Amino acid sequence: MIEISDIWYDKQICRYGTMSVKLEGMPTNIATADSFTGKKVIDREGIRYGKVKHIHIHQDTLTVSGVTIHQGFNKDYFLSEDYIDKFSEETLLLSRPPVRTGVSVVDIDGHKIGKVKRLHRNPDTNDLESIEVSNGLMHSKILSKSEIWGIGERVILRMTREEFKKLE
To answer: What is the DSSP secondary-structure string of 56-95?
Structure first.
C-alpha cells in the first residue's frame, strides 16, 4: 500500500498489485521480473511444485540465473535456469522435474523406502551429485544421482528395496 499525504487529515491511499506498466517504445516480448512472482510452477506432466517467489538475475550478464520456488510453510528452494522451459501468462513451465527434499523415495517396483532428507550439490556448478534418503528416524543413506531412475511426485530408484537395505 502506498500512502500519499499532502495534508495530514486528507490522506489519499492507493493500492498496487503485481501490475506491470507497458512503457512507450518497450518491445512486446519484455516483462518485469515482479510480474512473474506468484505464478504456479508445473512440469510437463502437470505436477505442481509451488509458486515463484523470486527471480534471480546474473549480475554480469543480466540474464535469469534461476528462481526461488515457494512450496509452503518454510519450504523454499532454488531452481537454476536449466530447469526453466518458459513463462506463460499464468505459469512457469519446467523443462524437467526437480528433486526436492521431503519427497517420497520408492524402489523400482514402487515400494516405499523413505524420503529425500538432503540434496548434495557440486558447489561450483550447483549440479545435483547425490541425495540423502532417510528411512527411519535415525537412519539415512547417500545415493549418487546415477541411482535415480525417475523424478516426479516421488523419486524412483534403480534398485529394489532389498538392494537398498544392503547398501552401506
So the answer is: EE-TTT-SEEEEEEE-STT-EEEEEGGGEEEE-SSEEEES
Residue keyed to cell 549480475: 59
Q: Which helix (H) or strand (E) holds 166?
A: helix 161-166
CA distances from 154 to 31, 102, 118, 119, 134 (A): 34, 9, 14, 14, 14
d(CA 89, CA 29): 12
Give pLDDT tens digits for 83-94: 889 888 889 999
pTM above 0.85, yes or no: no
**Torsion of the alpha carbons at 42, 48, 53 and 55, rounded to the nearest 10:** -20
* Interatomic CA distance for residues 73 and 69, integer angstroms: 12
